[in-house]
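Input record (one chain):
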Amino acid sequence: MNDPEKISPSEYLASLPFDRRLALYDIRGSIAHAKMLAHVKIVSEDEANLIVTGLVDIGDELERGDFPFDIEREDIHMNIEARLIDKIGPVGGKLHTARSRNDQIALDLRLFLKEAIDEIVTGLNTYQQALLVFAEKHIATIIPGYTHLQRAQPILLAHQILAYFEMAQRDKERFKDCYVRADVLPLGSGALAGVPYEIDRMFVAKELGFMTVSPNSIDAVSDRDFIVEFEAASSILMMHFSRLAEEIILWSSDEFGFMQVGDDYVSGSSIMPQKRNPDIAELARGKTGRVFGNLIGFLTTLKGLPLAYNRDLQEDKEGLFDTVDTVIGTLDMMAGMATNLSVDDSRTREAAEQSFNLATDIADYLVAKGMPFRDAHGIAATIVKDTVSKQLFLQDLSVSDYKKHSDLFDDDILKITVQSSIDARQSYGGTATIRVQEALATAHRLLGDE
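The corresponding structure, as predicted from the sequence alone:
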């Protein structure tokens, strides 16, 4: 085994390899801060203009990939400040007046996260739209509904897909709620105690588009709740993706045969030419674990920290960046996969019919004739048991077969079908076609389609 590459203490301390991703947010925050310093006359207008011009030039260098990063300067803040002084001279050193790297990094993270949340909410809209298109296409497709992964009652496929739409709607609400907590300006808190200058924090908040400013300087530099909240919301979203991915994996297997995943979302085998592996769905399911891990890891980092800033908080970024990238990438894949699913309607209906999904309907039939439900449940269970022992299905039974179990059965018992079962579930939120059509209309309104 090769020895691991040795690193120096300065390399161990450095956050530049990952916080360089925040460079343009750091530029934005610094430009707003420079304008504020001029606004309250801590620096002159000419000095502020020179600082802003230098920062804009540095931003251009960053976007072109020409910026001279230096690991010895430890982090992105010191790299940008040093470059600014190189460009405009000693006046660049005035930029750091009335701020600390502690409130500076807190600002950069909030700016980054607000944009990430906006992108995720937009992606969730696209994903929900894909689910809606799929659901509308299969408003008449009957499938067996499952509990305990056992066939339970017939439902519409559209009804099942709309359950994932509802999950995504809650996800969207969680991210929007998280945005509110991220939308707080920490700059102006200094290292932890505030700054000894007459600054205008609301001026900076307005420049950067923050709704409010932090009310406590100690909390402002040590608070990472907004990151925890984001990673928690991301974990729930990924859990929802993983559940849908699992159903796609099951339903596309030969054992189910309900659907086929689009060619772009499967892969072959290196030795088995017939294979169509649902790798995108499997990876979405697998990547859920890493997002969970980022949440738990960071909670563990935070749990023992005294106030205020501690260097442990440098560990907030890599997991956050990984979560953002994983969620956005998975959003794209899940929306694309939902758009490229094909369903075997005859197979799903056959699965719903060739089972005992209608057992509850038989019990409900007896209840409608006046029998207490618990007694009706017992009779229906006995009918199922006897039918299974004869290797038959319920649709194979005659009226006389039913009458052996209760005189309440009549010819109309044969009118119970998977379609009648679905049509009977007209309670609000049920699987009846009329209710699913209403749910689709509501979903369109939520997305602003009407």
